[in-house]
Amino acid sequence: MKEIRIGLFGFGTVGQSVYKVISGARNAHASIARICVRNLAKPRETEVPDGILTDNADDIFDDPSINLIVEVVDDAAASYRIVTRALRKGLPVVSGSKTMIAAHLPELIELQQQTGAALLYDASSCGSIPVIRNLEEYYDNDLLLEVKGILNGSSNYILSRVFDHNEPYGEALDKARRLGFAESDPTFDLSGQDSLFKLVIITVHALGVYVNPADVFTFGISNIHDADILYAREKGMKIKLVAQVVKIADDRFTMFVMPEFVAPGKYIYSVDNEYNGVVIRGECYDRQFMFGKGAGGMPTASSILSDVMARRYGYRYEYKKMSYSGLPAYTTDVSLRIYAHYLDTDIPSLLPFTRIRESFKSENANYVIGDILLSDLIANRALLDAPDVFIADFPMFFLDRDD
Amino acid sequence: MKEIRIGLFGFGTVGQSVYKVISGARNAHASIARICVRNLAKPRETEVPDGILTDNADDIFDDPSINLIVEVVDDAAASYRIVTRALRKGLPVVSGSKTMIAAHLPELIELQQQTGAALLYDASSCGSIPVIRNLEEYYDNDLLLEVKGILNGSSNYILSRVFDHNEPYGEALDKARRLGFAESDPTFDLSGQDSLFKLVIITVHALGVYVNPADVFTFGISNIHDADILYAREKGMKIKLVAQVVKIADDRFTMFVMPEFVAPGKYIYSVDNEYNGVVIRGECYDRQFMFGKGAGGMPTASSILSDVMARRYGYRYEYKKMSYSGLPAYTTDVSLRIYAHYLDTDIPSLLPFTRIRESFKSENANYVIGDILLSDLIANRALLDAPDVFIADFPMFFLDRDD
How distant, in Å, are the alpha carbons of A83, A120, A203, B379 from that of A109? Predict the structure, then answer.
């Protein structure tokens, strides 16, 4: 068990938190040797010893004393270059870049197997909640049926302000920006993309199957209307942005990211503000619920530290489940019940519902609740981008506490 | 990665669940070779192939094809003999026996180090919730401040019937017995002993320190009175049986098991029925909450299966934290605010409160709320066993959602 000397890429909010946490950890036997940043001149809050900062990646890769790369850059292309370069050199990497990992995971797994170098990325999904590690190590059995949760802190903060504090959506979004929960361009969070990438990574470790993010139905909360909020409130429910992967038979599973009407009995109902919550359902243990801070510099840094310390003991993901026999196949041939709000777009005639269960029309807002195939939602994805359209999962049983 | 052939000790509720789960797990590469029971003639629900059952432990220990012992016997002395015999033979063991492990952990750790054989026991604490594994592997850093939770399903079921369903305590206890949540002698659960043993194990993996169960203040719910229930209800609170280990300074921690008045904002407030819930608090990640089924054959068996599968990859607890420098020391020199109900026993004059904050007297029940040293509670432990006395932790701040 050697001392770990880290080459750190990225020194923004997360990078600086990583520096603080690792410098302060007495028993980590880890230190940060060099930090590579894009712009040396940029003013930063955290003071570091002279000569540690560099803008030349070679200063890290050519330093033979560095035996671990930690990569928290906010640029998927740069992250890809750093991670693949490190792995090719046989250097293990701890990364927090969900976008990059979700896009390149099959290649990164192969690269790990070819080079023997490990890539850990628990921080990429749900910040401080150890979802990846638990799915990989603890729920490594055939019993896993479903992983479902709130994976994005920013959108959850906004919806929480709306539903728990009765704030208008626009005001909540502004507040999220001011508090740093939402980026200056919050599209990535609000469109569901951030949740999608985390879900893709989770699915690899939950079921052993990689699904291309482009093949997964993803609908965010950007187009939520006051009428939708009002409707949910009247029913005593909240709308949450939910990501889920669900086994629908022994040999098939489905996955999607979509707002959902959530009733008070559900575990995720009480996941408020910037928190994340994940429900893991299995055949023997019923439901397990993990809850914690999903975003922010320090929660992410604590997750990075756990991965760094795991490297002292040579820990690596084995991706055991990917080699299992009879892996379930991804399908979108599954019927969902959805709520669809519309105004000008004629949703009831344009979307191929197999059954309409409720429909409502008024001068200001119309909605329909009906059953539809997930594959038909995907086929009609462009239609759903109209600003007057908002859809949400409308689960069939509201009152049982089942997730 | 060889096939795992298991010698199973114990074939009661948990043992039979283990058999079902392992027999049905397609990718476990594990099978149950022999099952050792005390009484071969006892009728059992689960059918097994001829010749698998035995009442002679030698049939397992002398079978060279068996490479893992799974031990779920309901007898601490027998469990100790089986586990130590296996470890001495170099055979790894998966055990669910919290009483035995809590009592003998230092010796069992030494034995593992001497023989190289591993002992895993995630099932011993909180059934299906992977508390031990997460504390050992993921929260392995200096940032951990507190582990607090509801660790006993039976007592929580009873309190949940009382507080959520307005049932009298005696009726709730009967129901728990009928449903199999409480043993025919439920003393072990209701006295807090079960929670205590789990807490002792958790503390080893949380802080790297073993504390003898006899040195830990433990007070259960057996002596709860209608007046206590009424008092909590009037304040809008529930009483829960809570176990906790808390760092009170960098170099000191305390731990105890005691009923607690829990306000609605707290995470553990909503842990109902036979569920367990654990809050892990740390410096960076604030609070993490893990929630799931803490008892019962199948949840326990799923946890055993996870440990069995971890053995395929040679997983073992490293007890890393025990070798850390500057381990915190256990102290009982800490002030608590408690609620104490009494009738004939003159609690206000017999217990050395440092400050009385509230006192109430009536014809049927008296109570006092005051500050007292934990060490003074321990010194006066016998006094608290009087049937008219019930004490509960009365935390100072009710309204902040802090655990």
Answer: 12, 11, 14, 58
